[in-house]
Amino acid sequence: MSELCALGASIGADVPFALMGGTCRVQGLGDVLKPLPPLPECWFTVVMPDYGVSTPEAFAAYDRVGSSILDGVCAAAGNALEECSGAKDNEAIKNALRENGAVAALMTGSGAAVFGVFRTEGEALAAAAALRPRWPEVYTAQPVRGGAEVQPVRRR
Q1: d(Cα 47, Cα 110) in Å, to the nearest integer?
Q2: What's the pLDDT band for 11 if we cut at 50, 70, 90?
Q3: Which residues pair with 45 in a beta bridge?
Q4: pLDDT in tens, 44-92
Q5: Which element (helix H / strand E) includes 128?
Q6: Which among 1, 14, 105, 150 is least buried, having the fewest CB atoms inside 10 angstroms?
Q7: Beta bridge partners of 128
Q8: Half-sphere exposure (CA, 13 Å, Cβ side) for 6?
Q9: Cβ-count burial of 58 within 10 angstroms (0-12 exposed, 13-18 middle, 19+ buried)?
Q10: Which residues pair with residue 99 across a beta bridge?
């Protein structure tokens, strides 16, 4: 697995995590992974605004300004890039996810997508339906326990 992850890192920073799967703390350029205990049973709703965020620009901004949440990243869920990524809908999407039952809401990677964590599939699907009129690209998913899986897109 370590050789496969090293090869994957040369393809893209997210590849080693996709290969490893499960719950991990990811550091460095996506190449330092520490397995964590699996998540309890839950569902996610992911909202993608109609724009992307440049990963190199987000990391360059982070290198310039740092992050006020860096000390708390290890103690609680957080994304150190969120403050400087340039994703302009983060707070609105996170608030909308929380208002629709998300236990937590965070930006993914360097953005611009935001995800909410829900206790049940029904809650995740209801939130997706509520957010879709404003942000049409909304998906629900359940975490997998052992590496990437390709499944058909389920939109409701």
Answers
A1: 14
A2: confident
A3: 116, 140
A4: 777 788 888 787 887 777 777 766 544 333 335 666 667 767 777 888 9
A5: helix 121-131
A6: 150
A7: none
A8: 3
A9: buried
A10: none
Of residues 112, 110, 149, the one with CA closest to residue 13 = 110
**Predicted pLDDT at 96:** 96
* Residues listed for the chain: 156
Sheet containing strand 43-48, strands side by side: 104-107, 114-118, 43-48, 137-141
Alpha-carbon distance of 42 to 106, in angstroms, equals 15
| Residue 134: other Cβ atoms inside 10 A | 13
Q: How many CA atoms lie within 13 A of 87 on its CB side?
A: 31
Q: 113 vs 9, 65, 104, CA distance in Å?
A: 22, 22, 14
Helix (H) or strand (E) holding 17: helix 15-20
> Model-level pTM?
0.54
User: In this structure, which amino acid lies at residue 98?
Assistant: R
State how far the Cα of 110 lies from the Cα of 56, in Å rounded to an integer: 9
pLDDT of res. 122: 94
* Residue type for position 124: A
How big is the CA angle at 96 (ends 148 and 132), to the nearest 5 degrees? 65
